């Protein structure tokens, strides 16, 4: 087993002491990097990039090679691999984002959905995980991930992304038993998918609940958080002699931090609408926190970026339990050198909080 040369990301998630605050970025392998755009052009399209282990590995490594101070790698994949493996027929329209050839609209549709086998139906993801892990050779930990059941359900019912989630919410209120069956199947699928990634070499996992924040408070607890709690309780939490930390991230989930902190994960991801210091007070010692700089700060000049990094570090204060990240994914128009200024500022200014 390869020795992990830099484990401060895993240590911070478990609230163990670190020398500086670890940092990574959601969507760190992405279109803002010219080398990523070149790989994507070579692969032909986005899904070909995901389904070829060599390409997935190549683009996962690109940000680490450009920014050696990054403290984690994240598997290059998509949250919609599970619905695709359930037979929904994922494809991407230029400028439109993800679409599905089949949509789920009735109880019969949901009853017919299979629960994918991670090795057989999503083997290309497991292959990518083990390939990346080998290539990393202990440099930094590898993060695996999945979409949350609620987030996956919205794409399956709407047939793609949506502004108002009209069909999904109609199903939720009209036929809650159908929605619960769909979410239950997705929770089972996500659990086995993430466990497959852990067995293939992922050293931490994150559940992306991108659209949970669009629900009412009662609906969030019943239709999103309950299923994430179910997943967390079914995950492998120790592998290769180390704990495997779990991060839950609900975008616009600031209203429910206490409930999310009770769901059994090791860390909560925060978007930029939450005050980090306040969040720390609210969750106490239960979980680590990850976040939460507004990604659009990266459009500003490097000095302004450094100022914002300092403000967020001061807001969290002293001690471990903070992983610095953006409050959502980095956007394609950001200049790579601005991302570099952000990453180096985190290490430069955070040492004083870990004396």
TrEMBL record:
This is Uroporphyrinogen decarboxylase. Its EC number is 4.1.1.37. Substrate binds at residues 27-31, 78, 155, 210, 328. GO terms for cellular component: cytosol. Pathway: Porphyrin-containing compound metabolism; protoporphyrin-IX biosynthesis; coproporphyrinogen-III from 5-aminolevulinate: step 4/4. Homodimer. Catalyzes the decarboxylation of four acetate groups of uroporphyrinogen-III to yield coproporphyrinogen-III. The keyword Lyase applies. It comes from the Bacteria. One of its GO terms (molecular function) is uroporphyrinogen decarboxylase activity. It comes from Pseudomonas psychrophila. It is found in: Cytoplasm.
